[in-house]
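Hi all, posting the design record for the shared folder.

TITLE: backbone redesign
STEP: 1 of 1
STRUCTURE INPUT:
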């Protein structure tokens, strides 16, 4: 609103400059004073535009730094080399190989989205002995994808979905009993931001 009014005033300044005053020196002097005041206002508006432009650019840069545009992680299960995971337990892939954006927590096995966007996740695991290994990938407690391996074979889960900032993704044993799993770096969990929203 203020800038609109100021624009109108500045437009009038061009009219004042173009007026051909023939009534005497006192009116010429008055118009000259008004023209000078309008010049000062126009300069002030230009200074304010530069200042606000710089401030807006600074705010955008700060927001981009706080909300990373590159997010990716890769974590591997090393220990136990050949063991089991308890029923309904979250797999804690403890060895982090990559964690740009710091979304993955090896202590909990949970990835927390640092920014809203479309993400892709993959998990791969090997069953360590006879029996079943049932793993599911979860978003905030909701099962998103499941895979099963049996008798020493491997499974892979791959899925893509949107996350809000703060949403949590993890891999969990969906079976109610302990399941055999191979660590030794053969089991991993990875994810990447495909498109920031």
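Okay, here is what came back for every position:
SEQUENCE:
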């Amino acid at each position: 609103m203020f800038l609109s009014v100021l624009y109108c005033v500045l437009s009038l300044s061009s009219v004042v400059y173009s007026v051909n005053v023939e009534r005497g020196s006192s009116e010429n002097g008055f118009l000259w004073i008004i023209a000078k005041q309008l010049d000062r206002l126009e300069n002030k508006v230009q200074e304010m535009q530069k200042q606000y432009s710089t401030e807006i650019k600074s705010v955008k840069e700060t927001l981009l730094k706080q909300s990373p545009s590159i997010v990716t992680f890769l974590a591997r299960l090393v220990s136990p080399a050949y063991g089991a995971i308890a029923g309904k337990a979250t797999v804690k892939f403890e060895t982090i190989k990559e964690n740009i954006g710091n979304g993955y927590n090896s202590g909990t096995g949970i990835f927390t989205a640092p920014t809203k966007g479309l993400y892709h996740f993959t998990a791969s695991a090997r069953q360590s002995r006879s029996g079943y290994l049932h793993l599911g990938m979860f978003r905030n407690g909701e099962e998103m994808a499941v895979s099963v391996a049996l008798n020493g074979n491997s499974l892979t889960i791959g899925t893509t979905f949107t996350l809000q900032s703060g949403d949590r993704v993890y891999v969990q044993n969906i079976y109610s009993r302990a399941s055999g799993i191979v660590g030794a770096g053969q089991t991993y969990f990875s994810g990447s931001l495909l498109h920031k929203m």
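COMMENT: The CA atoms of residues 6 and 45 lie 8 Å apart.
Let me know if anyone wants the other runs.
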